[in-house]
Structures are given as structure tokens and as C-alpha cells.
């Protein structure tokens, strides 16, 4: 069962907003934003996605569609026919998918330092990855599973990201499924008005990725925060709330 938290508007009848956190995060990192937004007339639904916070990992390696289905199960159970959706980083990946596949459910979409745009890889990195995959698959193909597993572990430790190396068990395979999906084709199908909020100093999902999303999503606008990083909503909380509230109400 997914761990959730609801922060209600003062009158108890706020506009529903679902918030999806980033990879390695949880409800607690989204709560500062929710606590400022709820008093402005919103019922905020915070979710610990499977494998994070107080929610157990999925039973097998999940991809973005699986996480989207999990979120959809929650909103259906909560009787949210339509809602605003806020996705940060990994939560943005899920939001892009939901926006494309379930356009009738979203009122408006806010993406904060969202993932989903493929990273630009230098030629040497692409060549290294291609060679690694060829050797790994060849070892598996001839039955040398132990050697292939050791190669995989070494490559991940040597060249994997911090998030990859921090993940264990099913979450490591989940990470690979998630990051290897290009969400741009889904972004192009989003119908909901979309707000992009971005830290200009974001190193995890650089500003150029926001600019790609702005060009790809049919009805999108980009607001950037100077001096803010990947958690721009925590770096610039007052600005974030002001922009989100205006966007949702107009």
C-alpha cells in the first residue's frame, strides 16, 4: 500500500493537486511546497512512490508506465476525476506520461526541474556504452552469467550515476528502466496547459532540457529562477508558490 498524505484547504473544499516527488526523495521533500500551497485553496495529495519514503519497493523492476498506473490507481481510489498535477524530476517523468495518456484527467500540469529529456552523450561515452553492452550480452549469450554479472557490477560502479549506485535490488533495475525511456514523444501529446519551473543552475536536469520541453509540449511556458538548482522549489519557495497559484487560478 502506498503511503500518502493529504493537506486540505482551510474551507475543506479545495481544488485537488497531486504532487509527485523526484528519485530518491519522498513526501517530506514535497511537504514544504504543499504546506504553503494548501492555504491558498488547494487540497494537496502527497504520495510516497513505490520504493521511496514509507512505501515498499515494487515487486519487480518498474518503468514509467507502471508508476503512472500506480498514481492513476490512487487518484481513482480518492475519487479525483480531475486534478492539477505537479511533478519534480522523476515525478516529472510520470507526469509527462500521465499528461499524454490521460489528458481528460489533468486540469493543468506543472513540471519542476523535470527529467524525461535524453541526456546528450559525448561520442566517447556512447562508444564505451556500446562496447560494454556488446561484451555483456555476448557473455550472457555463451552462458557466462557469473562473469557477465561481475562486468555489469563493475561498469555500474565505475560509470554509473550516484542515483544508480545508491539504488539496490529491484530499484537498481527500476532506475535503468526509468532513465532509458525517452519521454519527448509523450510530451508532444500533452494537451493540458503546462508550466515549466526551472533552476537556472540545475546540474541534474540542465536548463536546455527545459527549453526542449517548452518547444515540445504544445501549450507550455517556462519560468526560470536565477541562483536555484535542481530543487528550485526549495531554493525559491515564495517565487514558486506565487507562480503556481497564479497559473492554477488563471
The best one-word shape is globular
Low-confidence stretches: none
Q: How many domains, as an integer?
A: 2
* Alpha carbon gap, first and last residue: 35 Å
> How many helices does DSSP assign?
11
- CATH-level-4 superfamily name of the largest domain: Alpha/Beta hydrolase fold, catalytic domain
Q: What is the C-level CATH assignment of the largest domain?
A: Alpha Beta
Order of the strands making up the biggest sheet: 1-3-2-4-5-6-7
The number of distinct β-strands equals 7
Write the CATH architecture name of the largest domain: 3-Layer(aba) Sandwich
If you compute it from the alpha carbons, what radius of gyration comes out, rounded to the nearest whole angstrom? 19 Å
- What CATH calls the topology of the largest domain is Rossmann fold
Integer average pLDDT: 90
Helix content: 40-55%
Q: What composes the largest sheet?
A: 7 strands, mixed
Overview of the structural elements:
- The protein has helices at 27-37, 64-77, 90-101, 123-141, 145-159, 162-166, 170-179, 184-187, 207-216, 232-235, 237-249, and strands spanning 4-7, 15-20, 42-47, 83-88, 106-112, 194-199, 220-225.
- The protein has 250 residues and is α/β, with parallel strands linked by helices.
- The protein folds into 2 domains: 4-118 and 182-249, Rossmann fold (3-Layer(aba) Sandwich); 123-177, no CATH class.
- The protein is globular, with a radius of gyration of 19 Å.
- The mean pLDDT is 90.
